[in-house]
Amino acid sequence: MPNEDNTQQMSNSNSQVIAAIRSLEDRVANVEQIIVARLNTTRPLDQELLARLDELVTGQTVIREEQAAMRAEQAAMRAEQAAMRADYERFREETDENFRKIIERQDILNNDNLDLRLEHRRQSKRISRLEEAHTK
Prior knowledge:
Layout: H1 2-135
C-alpha cells in the first residue's frame, strides 16, 4: 500500500498546492481591486493637476508676452529719451550762443553809449565855453 499512501499524499499535496494557488489568486484579485479603486480615486486628481499645470503654462506664456511688450515699450521710451536729450543739448547750445551774442552786443551798446556820453560832455563843455566867451 505504499502506492496508495503516496497517491493520497500526492493528492493531498496537490490539493494544498491548488488551495494555495487559489488563495494567491484571490489575494491578487483583491490587490487588483484595491489598485483599480485607488486609480479611480486618483485619476480625477491627476486630471485636475494636469489642468492646473496647463493653466500655469498658459499664464507663464501670457506673462512672457507681456514682459516682451514691456521691454519693447522701455526700448521705445529710451529712444525717445535719447532724442529728447539730444534736442535739449541742441537747444542749450543755441541758447548759450544767443546769450553770448547778446552779451557782446550789450558790450558794444555800452561802449557806444559811453562814447556818446563822453562826446556829449565835450560838446556841453564847448558850448559852455562858447557861451562864456560870447557873454564877455
